Amino acid sequence: MLPFLKNTFSGFSRIRSSAFGLINQNGSQVLSNELLMPSSYDIFQVRGRKRALKANLTRQQKLERRLKREAKEAARKQYNFMEKIKIRRMKSLLSPSEQHPGRYIAENEVSLPDFPTTNVFFNNQAKTQFYSITDALKMHREMQQPSIFNNPKGIIKLRIELNMTTKKKTKMISNSDNIIPVPYPIETKEKRAILAFVADPELQELAIENGAEIALGPDVIKKIIKGQFRIDDYDFCVAHSDMGTSILPLRGILKSRFPTRNNGAFGENLPEMIDKFKKGVRMNVVGDPVYLHWGLCTPVVGKLNMADEEIILNIKTIIQALCNLRDPALGPFINRAVMMVGKNQFFVPLDVTEYIPVVEEEEKK
Question: Is 290 in the same domain as 161?
Answer without folding.
Answer: yes
